[in-house]
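Entry:
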Amino acid sequence: MATLPDLPVYEIQRDGYWLSTDRSRLDLDLIHRYLVEGSYWARGLDRALFERALEGSLPVAIYAPDGRLATFARVVTDLAVFAYLRDVFTLPAHRGRGLAAWLSEAIRQHPELATVTNWMLATRDAHAVYEKAGFRRVPHPEYYMSVPKPDEIT
């Protein structure tokens, strides 16, 4: 069985944009900067911790026709039955084109993720985006538990 860093590169194209899991194409400086400065969920994320998290994930990026990053996400997965889509963002110049929804749907077609039946994500404000890709609200949220982050404990 392949490990996450050793998976074959998966690429597809739509409307001049390319979706790719090629780690060598990632602009880690740009991705980390956006997560730290532009997201609500990763503010203050240490660079070394981000890189460690990325090593244990399948990165997915969409590149604009000019080759520059447009959208990024990572999939935390066991490559068998479970996958958690997280850190999804689209850079401002590329918003409104349905790229995050396309990424959220297209990554589920990756050959190494074909057996995954339990896909999850968390969002505070983009439910409509992910509903376009087939995600739905958890049917029984009372079944799910989490350990709160230190800043969430009241």
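The chain has a mean pLDDT of 93.
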